[in-house]
Structures are given as structure tokens and as C-alpha cells.
Specification:
Two copies of one chain form a homodimer.
Chain A (H helix, E strand, L loop, with lengths): L3 H15 L4 H8 L3 H8 L7 H11 L3 H16 L9 H10 E3 L3
Helix pairs in contact in A: 1-5, 2-4
Amino acid sequence: MLLVRREIGDVLRELRLQKGHTLRQVAGRASVALGYLSEIERGQKEASSEILYSIAEALDVPISQIMRDVSDRLAAIENVSIPDTVPAEFLISYTSQVQPVSN
Amino acid sequence: MLLVRREIGDVLRELRLQKGHTLRQVAGRASVALGYLSEIERGQKEASSEILYSIAEALDVPISQIMRDVSDRLAAIENVSIPDTVPAEFLISYTSQVQPVSN
């Protein structure tokens, strides 16, 4: 069974390590018990929405980015390809600067 | 405070209505109490990872897609733009089929 909390835990730990923070630092800033944060990172406890918000704040990362990383990891496991939207600026630049090569 | 469960609830309800299912149908398939599913959809209860998995199965939607929709909604609220990755196939097709117009 694909458990979202495991991917959330992995993403939170990865972001924390990327930022060079210790569990203690993030737990302190988020006002979460260190042992609880550790269990969340290991995918053993569900983080409530309130706690997720506090941890995102403590990591200085938008919650949307955390959930996007979670979604990307789940998609890789589910072997699902979610079509990206192509930004409008790119389409404008594409059509104005390039043209098909005629065969 | 930005609460992930509210966005999850909205996404689940939207997907259910898109598929033309009633609360009763999805609750039955997911083996979740109807009142509990209703509270999840209204963002009043956190769904555990196990229940989220069951609901995703009942809706026949990958969990990654649900979390992607949640992330997109959060990004709109946070006013965050998450860069899309351009699929490799597109890059290959781009470089092999088109070339810059010379000025």
C-alpha cells in the first residue's frame, strides 16, 4: 500500500538536510517534539495539517513545494506520468523563434 | 494558516463529482463511514494515509494525481510558481524537428 506519510517524511528529511538543519533545530522552530518530528520523517506518524504547516514554516519552504515533491515521488512509484503544463512564455518564445524543418 | 486537509477535501470532492459518484458509493467502495468521508471532504478531519489510499482506489485515481492537484491548489493560494519539468520526449522532438530561425 502506497502511504503518503512515508513520502512526506522522506521529503521533509531531504529538505532539512539540504538546508543543513538538525532535527533539534527544526523541531524547536516548529514547536514540535524532537521525537515526534523524527517519527514523521521516518513515515511512522501522520503529521496533522497544523504540524505540517509549522514544519514548512520552520524549513522556510512553501507547503505547495513539499506536496509537489511528494506527488513527484508518488508518481515515480505509481509509474504515472502527470502532464506538465507548458508555461505561456515558453509557447510564445517557441512559436516566434523556431519553425519546423521542412523534410 | 494553510491547511492541507482542506485542499485534500476539495480535491477529493471535485474528483468524486467529476466521476458522478455519490458519497455513499465512494464510502462503500473505500470501506469508510459515510459521515467520516463527508468530514474529510469538508476538510474537518485528517485522512490517514491508509484511508487516503482506499479513497484513491475507490475513485480510481492515482494518489500522485490527488497530491499534484493539492499542490497546485496550495501553490495558487501561496502565490508560488513551481517550474514544470519539460519531458525528455519533448526535448528530443524539439531538437530533432525544429531549428532556430536565423535573423
